[in-house]
Specification:
35% helix; Succinyl-CoA_synth-like; 7-stranded mixed beta sheet; ligase; 293 residues; Rossmann fold; 9 helices; SUCC_ACL_C
């Protein structure tokens, strides 16, 4: 089992013919992802040869869905065109849109995430590494060879910390790893993934990675307290971050005591979440929880 992405998922790549799209489409194909087409209105009717595998290019997401039955799209388009790309995908009825692009204006993200919710499309991102169900499918830029299938579900704001925890826990493995992105507005929240992992019968433990800024982790803690029965282990990046300074992601800024790593740690621990102070300690807590004694 997995959440949002399985080996049956049929994936389009918006921006496949660009530099980043070509590079990461090649990596996704190597990971076993069922890439059924790319989207570029100027190159419709052409195809791209990925080491002997021809992937067709469609003029629109709707055309690609009609021709292939695609049910997911990965967006590799420049920030100025990202809103249009996601709105197009949502209007076509795509169930899942994974937006890798960073630097998208917040007002554009607000607009396309709201539009996607109205049409019933799930957006993951923007400014995210995507998601991977090891051994089945990889939609985005997450390295596919650093872990294996297993019982851990992971949801994270940070791409690099996603990779590190995947590697540190590679001997146990993961059901699905979701990088939700670190922008102030994202399409899928910690809570959305917590709910999905709670319902996934093959996810035995959930790892939640947050960071300073905002109150997403505090809200996730309240949700865990009320709705999650599976063990949750957390890590918050930014314990040593200076107050009032943006650190890394656009959403990683604290004001006074609001949004600090310590406040988030306290909220999670009050809800029964074991919180590590480093990624390595977090991995150890996972191992102890899954393999007591």
């Amino acid at each position: 089992m997995a959440i949002h992405l399985t080996k049956e998922s049929k994936v389009l790549v918006q921006g496949m013919t660009g530099d980043q799209g070509l590079r990461h489409t090649r990596r996704m194909l190597a990971a076993g992802t069922n890439i059924v087409g790319g989207v570029n209105p100027r190159k419709a009717g052409q195809s791209v040869d990925f080491t002997g595998q021809d992937v067709p290019v469609f003029g629109s997401v709707a055309d690609g869905m009609r021709a292939t039955g695609a049910d997911a799209t990965v967006v590799f388009v420049p920030p100025a065109f990202a809103k249009g790309a996601v709105v197009e995908a949502a209007d076509a009825g795509i169930p899942l849109a994974v937006v890798i692009t960073e630097g998208i204006p917040v007002h554009d993200t607000v607009a396309f995430t709201a539009h996607a919710r109205r049409t019933g499309s799930r957006v993951i991102g923007p400014n995210c590494p995507g998601l991977i169900t090891p051994g089945q499918s990889n939609a985005g830029i997450i390295p596919a060879d650093i872990t294996r299938p297993g019982p851990i579900g992971l949801v994270s704001k940070s791409g690099t910390l996603t990779y590190q925890l995947m590697y540190e826990l590679r001997d146990i493995g993961f059901s699905t790893c979701v990088g939700i992105g670190g922008d102030p507005v994202v399409g899928t929240s910690h809570i959305d993934c917590l709910a999905a992992f709670q319902d996934d019968p093959d996810t035995e433990l959930i790892v939640l990675i947050g960071e300073i800024g905002g109150d997403a982790e505090e809200r996730a803690a309240a949700y865990i307290h009320d709705h999650v029965t599976k063990p949750v282990v957390g890590y918050i990046a930014g314990f040593t971050a200076p107050e009032g300074r943006t650190m890394g992601h656009a959403g990683a800024i604290v004001s006074g005591s609001a949004g600090t790593a310590r406040a988030k740690q306290e909220a999670l621990e009050t809800s029964g979440v074991r919180v590590g102070r480093t990624p390595t300690e977090t991995a150890r807590l996972v191992e102890e929880t899954l393999r007591p004694g």
